[in-house]
Please model this.
Amino acid sequence: MILIYLMIGVAWTWWLEWFTTTTLEGKYGQPWEGKERLFHSLLWPYSLGTFIYAAVIEFNKRNKGNE
Model:
């Protein structure tokens, strides 16, 4: 069970690092440090939840005028 949790965390961290470094500009588009990778690997449910929440908020902002 722990191994599955860690594997999901590593996969999420890999994708999130790829997404941020290739999509974002400025300080958010910089290569990650080890402490950032460790945080997102171990606390991936919090990280993923925050990402989804922010994505939904941004999606709603962008589509508010298209109703």
